[in-house]
Structure formats: structure tokens, C-alpha cells
Write a structure and sequence with these properties.
Blueprint lengths: L2 H17 L6 H11 L5 H9 L1 H11 L1 H9 L5 H31 L3 H21 L13 H11 L9 H11 L4 H26 L9 H26 L5 H20 L6
Helix pairs in contact: 1-2, 1-11, 2-7, 4-10, 4-11, 6-8, 6-10, 7-9, 7-12, 8-9, 9-10
Main location: membrane
Membrane topology: Multi-pass membrane protein
Function: Catalyzes the dephosphorylation of undecaprenyl diphosphate (UPP). Confers resistance to bacitracin.
């Protein structure tokens, strides 16, 4: 068993779980950390896809009681049916566009310059949206309308561009639609479940020939690390947004984008 490889898997799993649900782009972090660790190639790409499942399950575990309640009361509570319908509405735009353009996006946009540019641009978008300081009109996820869910789903489509951040696009889109910060964050977390499950399982299916039993320890370590760090970050982030703005994340994105550009000026990118 390669101890160094397991250590790399641990680090990348922690990074994935820590960044997946924050508006900072897990892609940007994975690019720079994976390159620094010399963890590249087709198997590395499949690993990075697989550990997303650990991060997703962190959200499922955190909301397990709410999910069980919604599924158990679909026939008796309109609020449960409305939430499920809204998630389906918000899920569809990115799913359709992702299937249509994912190959072209990976071929032409998945590089440090594109990701860094998206990080910086996204940071300034967050600053502009926060500067509006608009009073929220929707404070609970259950109060979201179908039209608002569609608008949030359209906002999520921007995350198809590497470096934008799925959580960042959905949360900022939600704020523009009048949601409070806690409601925007919670709906983003709920929406991540079908979106990330679908994207991850589809990507794993396409990469099934790359996997082997020898990868189980490495993938397992990364999976568990992503789950644990994801669970911690989800809980801390929900507590944070109830009292604070997203402005620190905006400046962090801008700084990370600049770091990404600087790093790859001296370390030619060999890809994942």
C-alpha cells in the first residue's frame, strides 16, 4: 500500500469537502492542490469525481431528518410536494445544458486561465450583489415559488463554466431572487443533492473502464475525508450565513484567482 498516495488522497478529500459547498469553487482548489501534489492523469480525474460523492453524502446526512420528512409526507403535505417540485424545476436547466455542452466545456475551458478568470469575475459579482443590500422577501425554503426555483436553476447554469462555483451561482442567484442568506444557502444545499449525484454518477459511468480494485483504498480515504470535512463545513457555513455576508468569500475568490494565475506562470499545467 502506497502511504504517500493515501496521504495525497486524504488531502484532496479534505479540500473537496471543505470547498464544495462554499462559494469559492472546489475546481479552482482541486486544480492547484492536485498539481502541487503531482496527482494527475485519468485515474486522478476519476478520483476527484468519486470523492464528490462523499461531499454530497455530507449534505444528505446533515438534512437526513428533513429529507425523510419530505419523502414521507409527499402524499399529505403540500409543502413537501412543493419543495420536491421546486428542486426538479431548478435542477433541469443545468442538467440539459450540461449534457449538451459538458464535453466542449472540458475541452476548451478547463484550464487555469479560464478557472482563475471565473474566480475573479465571480468575486466581483458577489461584491456587487452584496452591495445592493436588498431586503429579502423570502425567508424560508418552503416559501419559494416555481418561478423563483426556475430562476435559481438558470443561475446554476453559470456553474457549468469551471471556476464559477455551483454553490456560488445558486446562492447569488437566490439572493437576486429575494431569498434571505440562510434560505439561499439551504436551497443551494438541497439542490446540490440531485445535481451533484446526477453529474457525479454520470461521470463515473463514463470513466468506469479506468477503475480497478487496486484503487479502493485510495478512493475510500478520499471519500471519507470529503464526507467528514464536508459535514463540518456545511454546519459551520449555515451558522455563519445567519449573521454575516458573503463579502469575505468574494475577496478570497479574487485572491485565489490571482494565486492560480501566478502559480501556473512558474508551473506549466500538465492537466488533470
Amino acid at each position: 500500500m502506497d502511504t504517500l498516495l493515501l496521504l495525497k488522497a486524504l488531502i484532496l478529500g479534505l479540500v473537496e469537502g471543505a470547498t464544495e459547498f462554499l462559494p469559492v469553487s472546489s475546481t479552482g482548489h482541486q486544480i492547484i492542490v492536485a498539481d502541487f501534489l503531482a496527482f494527475t492523469g485519468e485515474r486522478a480525474k476519476t478520483f476527484e469525481i468519486f470523492i464528490q460523492l462523499g461531499a454530497i453524502l455530507a449534505v444528505v446526512w446533515h438534512y437526513r431528518a428533513r429529507i425523510a420528512h419530505v419523502l414521507g409526507t409527499l402524499g399529505s403535505e403540500s409543502a413537501s410536494r412543493r419543495l420536491l417540485l421546486n428542486l426538479a424545476i431548478a435542477f433541469l436547466p443545468a442538467a440539459v445544458l450540461g449534457l449538451a455542452f459538458s464535453k466542449a466545456i472540458k475541452e476548451h475551458l478547463f484550464n487555469p486561465v479560464s478557472v482563475a478568470s471565473a474566480l475573479v469575475a465571480g468575486g466581483f459579482v458577489i461584491l456587487l450583489i452584496e452591495r445592493r443590500n436588498a431586503r429579502p422577501t423570502v425567508r424560508e425554503v418552503d416559501a419559494i415559488s416555481g418561478r423563483t426555483a426556475l430562476m435559481i436553476g438558470l443561475a446554476q447554469c453559470f456553474a457549468l463554466f469551471p471556476g464559477v462555483s455551483r454553490s456560488g451561482s445558486t446562492i447569488m442567484g437566490s439572493l437576486l431572487c429575494g431569498l434571505s442568506r440562510p434560505a439561499a444557502t439551504e436551497f443551494s444545499f438541497f439542490l446540490s443533492i440531485p445535481t451533484m449525484f446526477a453529474a457525479t454518477l454520470y461521470s463515473l459511468y463514463k470513466a468506469r473502464d479506468v477503475l480497478s480494485m487496486a484503487d479502493v483504498p485510495t478512493f475510500g480515504v478520499g471519500f471519507v475525508a470529503a464526507f467528514i470535512s464536508g459535514l463540518i463545513v456545511v454546519r459551520l457555513f449555515l451558522a455563519y450565513v445567519s449573521k454575516h455576508s458573503f463579502i469575505p468569500f468574494a475577496w478570497y475568490r479574487i485572491a485565489l484567482g490571482a494565486l492560480l494565475l501566478l502559480y501556473f506562470q512558474f508551473h506549466p499545467w500538465v492537466g488533470e
